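quick one
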Amino acid sequence: MSENHSKITSHTLKNANGVRVEILNLGGIVKSIKTPNKHGVLEDVVLGFDTAADYLKPHPYFGAIAGRYANRIDNGTFTLDNKTYTLAQNNGSNHLHGGIVGFDKVFWDVSPFESEDGVGVRLHYLSEDMEEGYPGNLDVTVTYTLTHDNTLKVGYKATTDKKTILNLTQHSYFNLSGDFSNDILDHELQINASQYLPLNQNQIPVGTLEKVKNTPFDFQNPKPIGKDIAVENAQLEIGKGYDHCWVFDSKGLSKVARVYHAESGRLMEVYTDQPGMQLYTANFLDGTIPSKTGGFYKARSGFCLETQQFPNAPNQVEFPSTILNPNETFTSETWFKFHLIKTKNQ
Ligand code: BGC
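structure w/ beta-D-glucopyranose:
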């Protein structure tokens, strides 16, 4: 533990508007994102810990990069070219977020850079053949850039020397109020998706794409996250709230979601080129982990917007393929763009 403790490094990106993003080499974790509220007060808008070493203890993927395969793989197995691979079942019978020591728990090599866009860090990790049961030496680079216009850009790049599967995401829990004793039910969310993936009792997609219209999953027009979260609905029961993958209507890098917190004036937009996004309303936070702002993290203390491929896609042929072949380069982009809305008389 102490050896790992001394290996942790922290890197802070700053821009001229006072926005600050702190990133750890451990897990590629976004430890804090500080943005001003409409009164100019700089506050942290992501859940996690004050002390970097606390991220060495078990925690629910606060701020981390999830991989090699973010979200769930049914029974922890998949087949490639008639060969079956066995992964850790670390979530009931499911494989979750890359296994026992996923990308959230490894140490990445970090190199800082400056570009026209802003300042950033490039994180590199070589995941060896059969690490956590996945085939191929996978060379992964995650690039975080804080731009001059308050966007945290997350770029992913990966190559392999054997056919493998891949699904990478960023697992920050946001609470735009900056005070984690508030829940996020009053945040207004819009998702540009007319469909989502319903789940079976094990939280694995049943395989159909369901229309969100006339369901609690309809965020096509902005509505508070809390508006329908407690209505009687079999899918909400399975997830203990929202813990589902929305399927975007757009293709290519597009604006896919927008979250507005009126009291602080903070607005966040999400852009991605991925086909889906898991909205997770921190349903499994049970009040046992102490919060950065006092008190404890509870269900609904934060929300994750995990841009991704579809959960369990390696076992569901009708879903877009998540296979990465040797001599291909996987690239992907997700942006979290922060704005301030200053209303009159405030
Ligand atoms: C999953 C949740 C899980 C959480 C881990 C999310 O991506 O969808 O079910 O509990 O990550 O903390």
